């Protein structure tokens, strides 16, 4: 049985309140859980001590039994120095998708074609004026 330490949402619409629970990974987010080990209230200010409350002893025991915390809970446990949490590194997150890359390439090609057409248009009148000047002399 794969155990997760995760958030289970409570509260009403637009007023979230979360329980930090240990649950089987196959159970739904707000479904059955094994033990409640804390709470998280995101509506409170970040410096409020009641924003995140975790029973650290229970969390340590569940981690020793093999429970895996989710990213958000790992951040809370890292702030409490229970585990070492590092910010994830996803360098491809901001990279555009295939279709967006194709659109960018098409736009660049159109821009180059427009600049080339402008350059030709600017060069053509200059060539027409040069013979007229020679005739005037």
TrEMBL record:
Record-linked PANTHER family: 30S RIBOSOMAL PROTEIN S16, SMALL RIBOSOMAL SUBUNIT PROTEIN BS16M
Biased composition regions of type Acidic residues, renumbered to the chain: 126-137
Region (Disordered) residue spans: 86-137
Official protein name in the record: Small ribosomal subunit protein bS16
HAMAP family in the record: Ribosomal_bS16
Biased segments, Basic and acidic residues type: 86-118
Alphabetical list of Pfam families matching this protein: Ribosomal_S16 (PF00886)
Keyword flag Ribosomal protein: yes
Family statement: Belongs to the bacterial ribosomal protein bS16 family.
Any one GO BP annotation for this protein: translation
Database matches in InterPro entries: Ribosomal_bS16, Ribosomal_bS16_dom_sf
Provenance organism: Parvularcula maris
GO cellular component terms, semicolon-separated: cytoplasm; small ribosomal subunit
Top-rank lineage group of the source organism: Bacteria
Molecular functions (GO terms): structural constituent of ribosome
Keywords: Ribonucleoprotein, Ribosomal protein
């Amino acid at each position: 049985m794969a155990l997760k330490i995760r958030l289970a949402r409570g509260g009403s619409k637009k007023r979230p309140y979360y329980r930090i629970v240990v649950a089987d990974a196959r159970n739904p987010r707000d479904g059955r859980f094994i033990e409640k080990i804390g709470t998280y209230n995101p509506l409170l200010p970040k410096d409020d001590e009641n924003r995140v409350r975790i029973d650290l002893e229970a969390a340590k025991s569940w981690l020793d039994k093999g429970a895996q915390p989710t990213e958000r809970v790992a951040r809370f446990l890292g702030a409490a120095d229970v585990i070492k949490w590092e910010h994830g590194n996803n360098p491809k997150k901001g990279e555009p998708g295939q279709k967006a890359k194709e659109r960018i390439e098409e736009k660049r090609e159109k821009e180059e074609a427009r600049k080339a057409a402008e350059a030709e248009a600017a060069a053509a009148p200059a060539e027409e004026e040069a013979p007229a000047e020679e005739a005037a002399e």
